[in-house]
Design goal:
Blueprint: H1 2-9, H2 19-24, H3 30-39, H4 41-49, E1 60-63, E2 71-74, E3 77-78, H5 80-84, E4 97-102, E5 108-112, H6 113-129, E6 137-140, H7 146-157, E7 161-164, H8 171-181, E8 185-189, E9 191-194, E10 197-200, H9 201-209, E11 217-221, E12 235-237, H10 238-243, E13 254-255, E14 259-265, E15 273-278, H11 279-293, E16 301-304, H12 311-324, E17 327-331, H13 342-350, E18 354-357, H14 359-366, H15 371-374, E19 383-386, H16 393-403, E20 410-412, E21 446-449, E22 462-466, E23 476-477, H17 481-488, E24 496-504, E25 510-515, E26 519-522, E27 525-528, H18 529-537, E28 542-552, E29 556-565, H19 573-586, E30 595-598, H20 612-619
Parallel strand pairs: 4-17, 6-7, 6-8, 8-11, 11-12, 16-17, 16-18, 18-19, 19-20, 29-30
Antiparallel strand pairs: 1-2, 3-13, 4-5, 9-10, 14-15, 15-23, 21-22, 22-24, 24-25, 26-27, 28-29
This protein binds 5'-O-[(S)-butoxy(hydroxy)phosphoryl]adenosine.
Amino acid sequence: MKGTTEVLLNEKKIYKPSDKVLKNAKIKQWRAVQKKAAKDPVRFWDEAANDLDWYSYWGQTFDDSNAPFFKWYVGGKCNIVQNCLDRHMGTPVENKTAIIWESDAGKRRKLTYKQLNQAVCKMANGLKFLKIKRGDRVAIYLQNIPETAIAMLACAKIGAVHSVVYAGFSANALRERIDDQGAKILITSDVGHRRGKVIDMKSLTDKAISGSPSIQNVIVVRQGTGPVTMKMNRDIYYDALVDTQPSICRTEQMDSEDPLFILYTSGTTAKPKGVVHVHGGYMVGLNRTFQWVMDVRPDDVYWCTADPGWITGHSYIVYAPLMAGITTVMFEGVPDFPRPDRIWKIIEKYKVNILYTAPTLIRALMCYGEKWPMKYKMKSLRLLGSVGEPINPEAWRWYHKFVGKNKCPIMDTWWQTETGMFMISPLPSMPLKAGSATLPFPGIKAEVVDKKGNKVPVGKGGYLAIKTPWPAMLRTIFKNPKRYIDTYWKESPGYYHTGDMAHKDKDGYFWIQGRSDDVLSIAGHRIGNAEIESALVSHKSVAEAGVIGKPHPVKGESAKAFVILRRGVKGTDILIKTLKKHIRTKLGPIAVTDEIEFVEKLPKTRSGKIMRRVIKAAELGQDLGDTSALAD
Ligand code: WT7
């Protein structure tokens, strides 16, 4: 960590916005806007809500009477789908392309706003036909295909709560999430496609829900041509369900504080947290941040390369771009298949104006050399974005030079599943520094504090914390309000605790340094050390396991497991392979550790807790720090 701080502090060059960028930027006087918002954040968010449609207005903008269970736009009636679709109907937007989808194999599909609206209405009616009502939970386990967005919007339209599970998660992980939320329906596909290979999704989901007490029906989106095993009275093809449904469906009028979705994310224990977001505040936060940070114009083609299974996909592939009435690109494939120019090709093909991606993708493509992006002019590009982990200055500069051709500002957006929206991010008119997410978004008060909640001096590292609530914040952890309080409102007294470390420079710019807690960020994907340990320990050969993160040139971080085997078990290479496979089955490919080392002992506290910090320091050859809690 020390190393990173030094590198970052030496990063002095300031990238000023060009005249062209400044001239066109929606927010030019960003300092004045920030100052005004800081004086009265509630008023700022009250005004922001007027950019959207409401069935009836709220009485109270912000309610903290039951802190930390904050409420926004209390008494208001709305539906995010009204703002994503309904309000565009009968306007010129209805004939605009809402979604451009490119498949793994390079096939293209386009849906206008009108077509998307019809598809959503049909699906919503289909869900109603299957007896789904307001408040019911619907699990979605699909790849990056238009039906994922259609399913999400259809749920929201009728007031059902969707929960998208990333298609890279294993059957076990899917099962755990379905059980926790008590989902009545699972929407999945027969197969998925990746790198030209076919993935059998249906068998996997069958395994996940076998004996499930809550699942009543499975809706299967047909993506392949082969035979599919369908269970009588439970499974139904998506086409068969929606084809006969009317293409009109009334949008449910929701309370601002009614839940919109549950999205599971990793924490410091083995059990993932069901983060709950609501209609009202979420839509306002998304709309304002997207409009200002991405500086969208009505005819923009915008591409976020994330997967809808993560918060980035929820907020900024599906909801925010549709509210803005622009074209959002969805891409099923991977960046280097069939060749390492896939991303640049798609940008030229669809004349993408805004590209929003992750440092791990940039670093992976850097490995193939700049000759690939240099072949493409990518003239349409105007703005770039980055998210998921700190972007190292080298990657930032490469992105700026070879992708943005030195003319596109990079919006390094810091936020989380829990925050729902961008929290620390530049606006295009601001001076940039490579590797800094710059300043809090107007209306957001971020600080760097110590364990007691005191602000730390400039240049000194500490915990990144947020002082005042914001509309798109999570409302609770599903069925676990105590965990909500303990995780976010106890660690940094007086603040929302982010779990990240950061420091501020003399200009007030934030430099995020990574997680302070036991959560890994592998290729920008969040996974708890404890989740991997628990998966390992569930194998019959393993007695104990300690998992740490190690710096990785492309993935940012990679996991290494230290394993104590049960008595009599031999630590062979074959066992390493078996254990890796076991993690894959339990959690999914993203959680597989790069290395597994068999050890006799692990450093523990007297109470028997494995000290990951000490293992990590030893592994990286660093100072072991305070070891007074060690048992021996
Ligand atoms: C964690 C949240 C919300 C986007 C996707 C990840 C890290 C995210 C940045 C950034 C430095 C970042 C943090 C954060 N992170 N964006 N621009 N700079 N770090 O969502 O899975 O909830 O993970 O991702 O560590 O806490 P997530």
